[in-house]
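Model: You mentioned two targets. I'll fold them one after the other.
Researcher: Yes, keep them separate.
Model: Target one:
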Amino acid sequence: METDGTYESRDTKGGAVPRPAGPPPSFPPPQGPPPVPHTGQTVPAPQTGTGPRPAAPPLVPPPPTHAPARLGVAEWLRIPRPAAAPGIWRLGHRERPEREPELVPGRQLITGAFVAYLSGWLLWSLLWNGYLEGGWIFVDEWWLLPMLWLVPSDWRNPGSPDFEAYIGALYLWYAIILILFAVGFGRVGNWREIWQRYGVPVWPLFVLLPGVWREMPRTLTWLTWVSNLYYVLLAAALVAAVGRAGTWPPVRRRFGTGGAQAPAPPPPVPPGADPAEWPELRDAGLAEAAARLAEATRQGALGDVDYARIQRAWQGVRARPERLAAFTDTVRTRGAAACGHPSGLRDLPVRTATHDLATGQVLIGTAADHPRNPYARRTTGVALEPGVLGTSLLAVGPAGSGKTVRLVRPVVETLCLQALANRVAVVTVTTQGAALGPDEAFDVVVSVGRRESTHDLDLYGGADDPDEAARVLADALVGDLVADSRRAATALAQLIGPFLAAYGRFPGVPELRELLGGAPDALAALRAAVAGDSAQLRELDARQRQADRGDDVGTLLAERITFLDRPAFADFFRTESGPGGHGEGGGRPKFSLRAIEHPLRVRVDLPERGHVEASRIVSRLLLAQFTEAALARRDRSLFACLVLDDATHTVTADSVRALQRLRSANAGVLLALRSLEDVPEALREPLLGSVGCRMAFAGIAPWDGGRFAEAWGTEWVQTRDVTNRQIVADEPLTKALHVMRRLVTGRAATAEAVTVREVERQRWSASDLAHAVPPGHAVLSLTHVRGEHVPPLLVDLRS
């Protein structure tokens, strides 16, 4: 149960699943929120061999040092994650309206508000100064009658003891009239939108500015206090209006005095549905296990990786109920460290991106507030997840556009975190020195061409069938030169099959080079070794007949494999097996892509300098082996992903066809290219059609943008055509007015005719992709494995 049943290899030779490259690093005490107590226990170093590991007491690894930023795990779990379209960052997401509300232009809004303000003030001034009394309606002070009806007449006498109450009622009535004016003219002038858009308090200013308050008598004690309060409120309203107009909030934000509002707290969680209390375990009757995990969550000993890993184990239990007892026992014994990764690690040493392991998403940017983006998607977070990467992603952008830093590294980081949660197997192919994470973040690091590499690379990808091995190797050697590699695969199979029958293993690089080059001694020795096998002799005879032809593909294969038969690679690609599946002498274990059935984190460093062609051959070899291994998996519960940081001259016809089949195998590939010119011309359009996610970075060439524009298609948009027509007047007065207007403005009198129609237009044209995408941005379209599609969005990768 510790491994959730996902680590049993179907390799009978041993050594197909390499152990981590070294022991996990020691963890310092955690710093910052959430507070995590130190357990005081250590982690035993994992075994580097392939034999059974000795039994050890269930020690608890140190708690993770990277929890969700600024939040405890319990608070992080309580943040709502509503269902959303693919690519939307679901953590705390709030839906936006589908259509943009029609806003009044700022100049028109301010003008209307100011006119309404003046109109209201004019009406109040007319009332206050008595211009709307007497001869107008034959009643003096008619607007005071309701108040006078309610107040006894003897209160109006200055000598009355209730005269103070009369003064208070009078000014209260003034306030009621002003407030009614403010409400009426505020609706006419749209003062509410002025407040929402600019923050200017128009209503208080309208009520407080009239001079009636300054004429308030100060002979009475309480009226003196009311007058002082009036001046305080008037000063506050003026300061608020002037401060907002003078952009004081940005100044406060700049100096850190709290100009920005704090995010609203998440809504309260209903009783019994708090994810931090593990309700799914309680509902299944595992109250003790749920209590143990809930306590670890509250104390901070359980991290986000632990939560995702235990949830993955619980899903396995629901699929196979016979594991329930083992799951309960390991949770009771190990708590937050239950069902751990084989490496013993519970987090990565460094995180550079924002992750939400509850949904498996990584935040890569924000949808720009741009007219080309749908209004509902503007300013929302853009995230990638296994469901999206399962359709494969092609990213094209020039050097320095941010492919590695803003796309590849966050994706690799989230896949490594999910691998620690036993959900993903990731293989990253990059050049030596690329900043995709430290060596401690990976279980296996294969540095091709470097003596300090801890692992060798299996040239045949763990294949047992010579035809399968020949097909994969032929695609790697000549897939970028020929449209159909079947002839090359046949030529290789005619040599690999007899060699396997004779020696029980596949040929190494030097041996295969000699056989392809037609070395007499090597061919004679092989023929003698299979002299008793007529089928293998026929294979060798057929190879000999093809070698005598002038268009034999074996010559090309021999030339291409020469790039791998160099002194720098003398210790790599060995096929001699030592004890435990290691290379010759058992000194260096071999890594095979068949291991993607297990939650491994693998990084392959290619020797870019001086061995460019060899690096490209190895890249094609890994791509071909990955697609073959992903499609051949029997257990496809793990998401498998291959990340190619530089896929230059890596794509072949066979790999394009294989990409289309990876969706059903719960696997995907991320390809990063500087230009589509690095792909054979016949494969550029099929490649764009085979991937579900396409990403064009700022600065791509117009011819690359044209292919993206064709792939993204067109949409119906509404256009407005404005036509100006000169007005010809017949009447003398109208002619005179037109002549005067022309003398003043310099333009003839015209009339506008507006035509609204719907036209079909490209979503993003080649020119827009080449010249209108700002630096640090990219245009991204997504497709989920369920078939949901997201049109291209302009994404700000810097936010």
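Model: Target two:
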Amino acid sequence: MRELSARAFPELEAGGDDQPSPIEAARAQRRRDAEETRRLALKRAREDRARRSGAPTEPVTPDVRHTA
């Protein structure tokens, strides 16, 4: 029974533990992209609201906090 289980569910290779699976990497990238889009939309909405109220505003510029 263990032999069948081992063939059906092979163990991951020893070097694969430090790298996320391709699916997890894609999910993480989508989350980062969604968060970036959300932050930019919020910044633009705040700027638009300030412009409508007549307050001085700063131009919308991309955030340059990314590393690597």
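Researcher: Noted. Anything on target two?
Model: The mean pLDDT is 81.
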